[in-house]
Amino acid sequence: MRKFDFNYFVAEFAKATNMESLHATLEQATHDLGFRYFAMGHHVDLAIPPEGIVRLTNYHESWIGQIVEEGFFADDPIHAASTKSLVGFLWHDVGSLIELSDRQKQILETAAKFGLATGCTIPAHIPGEFLGTCSFGAPSLDQLRDDSLPAAYIVGGFAFEAARRIVRRKSRYGTEPTPTFTSRQHEALIWMGRGKADSEIGTLMGIATSTAHEHVEHVRRAYGNAQRVHLIVRALFDGVVTFTDLLRR
Amino acid sequence: MIDIHIFEGCCTPGSNVMFDAMHRDRKTIFVDLLKWDVPVIGGQFEIDQFDGPQAIYLVATDDDEGHLGSIRLLPTCGPHILGDIFPQLCDGAAPAGTGIWEISRGCLSPRLRASERLHIRNALTSAAVDFALLHGITSYTCIADMGWLSQILALGWGCMPLGLPQTIGRTLTGALRIDIHGGTPNLLRDAGTYQRTRLVREQQGQRNAA
Q1: Interface pTM (ipTM) of the complex?
Q2: Which of residues 173-202 of A touch B (CB under 8 A)?
Q3: CATH superfamily name and code, B2-201
Q4: Cα distance from A124 to chain B (closest Cα, Å)?
């Protein structure tokens, strides 16, 4: 079998200056990998996508329409599985990563009718960004190469980075600095994320309730006077705190 | 601005507080957490055959010489991991030459919080780029678990795979070449990862006899 020419594709991805040329290169790479369809992007609400996100696909238009109209993206089993995995996986292994609901089984069955019976997904998660993936799909694995999965890593990784670069140059996304906190403010933020009230935070940190309140207020101001739930989500999103900080330690 | 300490040559266990802390953190990360099959000295230090006089270490420390994070640089003219242990990860010969150094044992202290991790990681990356530009290093090579590929690329520097990733142990592993040139700091700035650091050359520690 002819070796997969990753050098060519990595060079083309590096040269891409707009989404159109990236789309064309990614489509060609998808074909050479032995797949037919690709979808690369951040996981967001597709009905009202935020600005500055990556979303590039050659999935069948009526399938995309159905994904958006029926809100399939919110329950997408592939996306759900990708949050459980730092490494790439084949779609037929999804059942071992998450427990599939009836609706998720229905989504997989419907996707198969649009030529997406099988495929693989490469996560491209970056701290401080929406979760991202690059997926490759096909009606069957007949055309798959021996080295398709490792090669898909290279294609997915470099294509996603090219897309991030193009998006960055087009928008101000990602240039807003993440707020920084003192270690005490950070500790207060973690207790807040664990559902503690100011008085409890004071006790846990061995400080007065009023001092705990000041720490909490500082964090709120740093996030534009955000309410507690919103600022905790923002802090998780920015990578200022992690799920481990809030749930495991 | 954070100081990044530069050590030429490894110190023997027990002779340098900072080195001991680094080898201890490396043991926690690579042996306890990632289950790598690498040597452990005295039950607490991860030290391998490449931790010798030829290795250069870039190290971030706290005020008490505590280890926050570090990377190890090896000249590819001498023994190094890609050339000596995993040459099969390269389609051709493993890149070697005076201007090519290998980055390995990138390690962040497990005690760091999420935001500090990003800060120290970016500082070490920026220091590696500055160090390369100061010393005529034109390329780094490295071996990476493919789960980290996106994050390595997202640092903003120019990377090139040296071959298709292969399964080593339980992880898909690949080799990369990272090219460093005058424009690299700007690529990092563009990606939001460049941090100004002060490179502090340390008194050479007691060198291993190796």
Answers
A1: 0.89
A2: 174-175, 178, 180-181, 186
A3: Gcn5-related N-acetyltransferase (GNAT) (3.40.630.30)
A4: 5
CA separation for the pair A174, A180 (Å, rounded): 15
Residues of A in contact with B154 (CB under 8 A): 126, 161, 164
B89 to chain A: closest CA residue: A150
Domain of residue A89, CATH code:
3.30.450.80
Q: How many domains does chain A have?
A: 2
Q: How many CB pairs under 8 A join A and B?
A: 81
Contacts of A168 in chain B (CB under 8 A): 190-191
Q: Cα distance from B122 to chain A (closest Cα, Å)? A: 13
- The answer to whether the CB of B25 falls within 8 A of the CB of B109 is yes
Distance of CA A174 to the CA centre of its chain: 15
The closest alpha carbon to A140, from A222, A226, A242, A37, belongs to A37
Q: What string of pLDDT tens digits covers the 210 residues of chain B?
A: 899 999 999 888 888 889 999 999 999 999 999 889 999 999 999 999 999 999 999 999 988 888 999 999 999 999 999 999 999 999 999 999 999 999 999 999 999 988 889 999 999 999 999 999 999 999 999 999 998 899 999 999 999 999 999 998 888 999 999 999 999 999 999 898 999 999 999 876 544 433
Contacts of A33 (CB under 8 A, 6+ apart): A4, A136, A144, A145, A148, A151, A152, A155
